[in-house]
Amino acid sequence: MPSGFVVPNTATKATFEAIGGLTNCIKASPVMGPDGGWCVNDPMFAGKDTQINSYGGIAGIVARERQMFLVGVFLGSAPPTDPAPDRISYSTPADYALASYGPLLNQIFFIGDGLTGTGSGTIQTFFVPTGARRLYFGFADAFYFGHYSASGLDPGHYGDNTGALAGTFNFDGLDGIPTPLPILTPEPASFALIAAGLAFLLRRK
After folding, report:
1. Residues linked to residue 179 through DSSP beta bridges, in sequence order
2. Which residue has the higher pLDDT, 192 or 96?
3. Within-domain flag for 204
4. For 121, what's the count of Cα atoms within 13 Å in the CB-facing half-sphere?
């Protein structure tokens, strides 16, 4: 299980800035930004939602017509256990464009580029749930993102992904200097819903 960023005891919200880069869910040139999109070179992906089951006490996610977007999850001091919280469902374009969000502990949430629009708009606020001690970043992936087979709803299938994302984030009440995200690569990992590349070796400035 990769290390995560420690959530300061005084933190009540997080913001994300300058999230950039490209990924793809198949072994092809990366084309999707942090807000996600559709995989190229395979029509079976086009127009499909992400529908991923909860697993190991961590909620899955449902996202309309989006794939390979940046997600986060707040964890507490104890390992997640079943039952997981309800999955968040982003079912309309407006669901991605809210000014603020309040995810629960162990509940995967959409971050994307951290703005109300794709590459535009205002910076979104993500409120820190009570009891949060760690914050992880990654990608919600599964076999065809939950389509075509019941087993495809379970998280996994990172092995054919390409690309990387990077950017900064900050908690309120700190020094105001954004913390660099790790270089996020959507590749295999032992942690169910969070991709590898989360070494968290970058330090606060």
Report:
1. 169
2. 96
3. no
4. 18
Q: 95 — phi, psi (to 5°)? A: -65, -25
Cβ-contact 53, 153 below 8 angstroms? yes
Non-local (6+) Cβ contacts of 21 within 8 A are 30, 33, 34, 163, 164, 165, 166, 167, 184
Structural domains in the chain (count): 1
| 116 occurs within a structural domain | yes
Residues belonging to the chain: 205
Q: For residue 23, is it within any domain?
A: yes
pTM (whole model) above 0.85 = no
Range of the domain at 108: 5-180
E strands, 28-102, in order: 50-52, 61-63, 70-75, 88-90, 100-101
β-strands 88-90, 61-63 pairing? parallel
* Buried residues in 70-86 as b, exposed as e (16+ CB within 10 A): bbbbbbeeeebeeebbe
Instruction: Convert the pLDDT of each residue in 38-58 to its tens digit.
Output: 876 566 666 678 888 888 899
Amino acid at 111: I
In a domain, residue 125? The reply is yes
